[in-house]
Write a structure and sequence with these properties.
555 residues, alpha/beta, Rossmann fold, Domain 2, N(10)-formyltetrahydrofolate synthetase, Formyltetrahydrofolate synthetase, domain 3, four-stranded mixed beta sheet, 25 strands, 35% helix, 19% strand
């Protein structure tokens, strides 16, 4: 079979104007970025969304390090609904250059279920990530410049909480010293870098409702504290207007297409293990205003992106999913059942049976929110008939949940027709939505609810510094904000090696970060890092380009 990039490069794309026409967009509602990409104007409001618009969330189990094809299933499901003559749009996050050049790869799907132009989307796309990076780092420069020229706000340089960012995995930049070189080069202090997807600017982009709302959220960002330990915001610096100027184009959702010409909105890209892991509100609203079915995904498993989609994003969207797809792979379940990670291609029913408890917890997680759930078994060539039949029976009989075997990677939309038919039926059902915590719960209570109801653990334990941060956040009046847990994606616990469905564990919170502009509190747990590193064999080693501009090795 061809590689992903070979499949992408051999596809005849439709002009993006034709894709926009499928959604009923007028010429004034989009701006061309070449022949196959467009920016869509951000003038869609809730009252423009039809009452029968259906929102479908795709989440997954705990993955292997290579991922389980959640984006592939999302794209394949959209293409399958398109084949069934349904009005459909897909809404995805933009890929980060960190994993593109690292280990996991891009975020455009795979095989014959991809969004295109794949190379553009996985690399610089329409420049959104660059705009976010420049906006974030411009703010960092303005903070230091304010201190250099008199420090009228009385900022304590030791209490600056605004790091710099870069959209590359670079472990060397986790801890840095800035301001060396004498009095004209600033005041020396400890600093560091996060990856761009962890930036509060990224979160704000994904949660803003329009440009004015984005500017207002930026103004509320807390960047530092004074010598008297009082917060300093962007509004105090008076630069929210300048920062919003840098985001004027990035705030507009991007429109592309799948290999089968299904419209796809791709916008924003926060990681789900260190951020809230969902694409933008504006992209979701654009999709729901122009199509009956919107298929979206949230990063990693139901314990991360799935929970954050429900608890952080949907209250702002004022819309819960009409159905949830939990993607499972036999190889990931065998890994969670104790199988050798180097031997997952070999049939092992014992490991599959042992690891199925991981799927059970993810399914039950999503059912807690009240929505209908279906399990999509993303089939790999190495899966045996015995493994597939056992898993289907387990889902049907033990989990009492609909199940569909999908093969979108090899067959595109045709490989998800059964799943699409089940989604059409499930999304018509009435349901009673529920929450796992309420805004007025204390910060610690909210974290404990997530640990107990989603992770299956006992409680959170906080370091001494995290307790102080919690008290400060509550003292400043932000205790009602939702919680964004930063946690390993490989386990329900904060220990990446504790697989399956562990119980009787605590989640160690080492730091609480207030994201006042984005409107949530990040709880840093375990050994999670907000600036990843590259693996021993980064994907960059396998990439090349010839004199004609043809790229190879990009998956």
């Amino acid at each position: 079979m061809k590689t992903d990039i070979e499949i992408s490069q051999s596809t005849d794309m439709l002009p993006i104007t034709q894709i926009a026409q499928k959604l009923g967009l007028s010429d004034s509602q989009f701006e061309l970025y070449g022949n196959y990409k467009a920016k869509v104007n951000t003038n869609f409001n809730n009252n423009e969304i039809s009452s029968d618009a259906k929102l479908i969330l795709v989440t997954s189990i705990n993955p292997t390090r290579a991922g389980e094809g959640k984006t592939t299933v999302t794209v394949g499901l959209g293409d399958a609904l398109h084949r069934l003559n349904q009005s459909v749009a897909i809404a995805l996050r933009e890929p980060s250059l960190g994993p593109v050049m690292g280990l996991k790869g891009g975020a455009t799907g795979g095989g014959y279920a991809q969004v295109v132009p794949m190379e553009d989307i996985n690399l610089h796309f329409t420049g959104d990530f660059h705009a976010i990076t420049e906006t974030h780092d411009t703010l960092a420069a303005l903070i230091d410049n304010h201190i250099q020229h008199g420090n009228q706000l009385n900022i304590d340089p030791r209490r600056i909480v605004w790091k710099r960012v870069l959209d590359v995995n670079d472990r060397e930049l986790r801890q840095t010293i800035v301001g060396l070189g004498g009095t004209t080069s600033g005041e020396p202090r400890q600093d560091g870098f996060d990856i761009t997807v962890a930036s509060e600017i990224m979160a704000i982009l994904c949660l803003a409702t329009d440009l004015e709302n984005l500017k207002n959220k930026i103004s509320q960002i807390i960047v530092a504290y004074t010598y008297e330990n009082q917060p300093v915001t962007v509004a105090d610096l008076g630069v929210q207007g300048a920062l919003a100027v840098l985001m004027k184009d990035a705030i507009k959702p991007n429109l592309v297409q799948t290999l089968e010409h299904t419209p796809a909105f791709i916008h924003g890209g926060p990681f789900a293990n260190i951020a809230h892991g969902c694409n933008s509100l504006l992209a979701l609203k654009a999709a729901m205003a122009t199509a009956k079915y919107t298929i979206t995904e949230a990063g990693f498993g139901s314990d991360l992106g799935g929970e954050k989609f429900m608890d952080i994003l949907t209250p702002k969207l004022n819309k819960k999913p009409d159905a949830v797809v939990v993607v499972a792979t036999i190889r990931a379940l065998k890994l969670n059942g104790g199988d050798d990670p180097t031997n997952l291609a070999t049939e092992n029913l014992a490991s599959l049976m042992a690891g199925a408890v991981n799927l059970k917890r993810h399914v039950n997680n999503m059912k807690q929110f009240g929505q209908p759930v279906v399990v999509a078994i993303n089939r790999f060539d190495t899966d045996t008939l015995a493994e597939i039949n056992w898993l289907k029976q387990y889902v049907n009989e033990t989990l009492k949940t609909p199940v569909s075997v999908v093969n979108c990677f090899a067959d595109g939309g045709a490989g998800a027709i059964d799943l699409a038919q089940q989604i059409i039926e499930l999304s018509q059902q009435d349901y009673q939505s529920a929450n796992i915590y309420v805004a007025n719960d204390s910060i610690e209570t909210k974290m404990n609810h997530i640990v107990q109801k989603i992770y299956g653990g006992n409680k959170v334990t906080l370091t001494a510094s995290a307790k102080k941060q919690m008290k400060r956040i509550e003292r400043l009046g932000y205790g009602q904000l939702p919680i964004c847990m930063a946690k390993t994606q490989y386990s329900f616990s904060d220990n990446a090696k504790l697989l399956g469905a562990p119980t009787d564990f605590d989640i160690n919170v080492k730091e609480l970060q207030l994201k006042a502009g984005a409107g949530f509190i990040v709880a840093i747990t375990g050994n999670i890092l907000t600036m990843p590193g590259l693996p021993s064999h980064p994907a960059a080693l396998d990439m090349d380009i010839n004199n004609q501009g043809t790229i190879t090795g990009l998956f």
